[in-house]
């Protein structure tokens, strides 16, 4: 039996407005967009985008609330800033990857690559 993926996504939709409360929110907030990516080895990752500023990524049994970060190309979302461990979601043109930066080791590891929106 396939796992019920609607509960985590429903929770993610509730978390998105909470992430936005830390900053000034415009009067009209865009409707969240849910995108399913299929990555290498057939792994599916669901992402809820709240406009361009926030993404909630469902991966590794977790909901990762990420904020938009500076990138040279594409959209980059980070779980934290500074010298702490954090998840990182990169998306460009319907392709994406999920990385994890380990602050103790000082390097980034790609967890899922070659993810395509479907």
Automatic annotation (TrEMBL):
The protein's matches in Gene3D superfamilies, at most eight in alphabetical order, are given as: 2.40.128.200
Which parts of the chain span the membrane according to its record? none
Q: Which residues form the C-type lysozyme inhibitor domain?
A: 37-103
What Pfam families does the annotation carry?
MliC (PF09864)
> Which keywords does the record carry?
Lipoprotein, Membrane, Palmitate, Signal
Q: Which domain of life is it from?
A: Bacteria
Q: Where is the signal peptide?
A: 1-22
Q: Give yes or no: UniProt keyword Ion transport.
A: no
The UniProt entry, under SUPFAM superfamilies, shows: YdhA-like
Name of protein: Lysozyme inhibitor
Lineage per the UniProt record: Bacteria, Pseudomonadati, Pseudomonadota, Alphaproteobacteria, Rhodobacterales
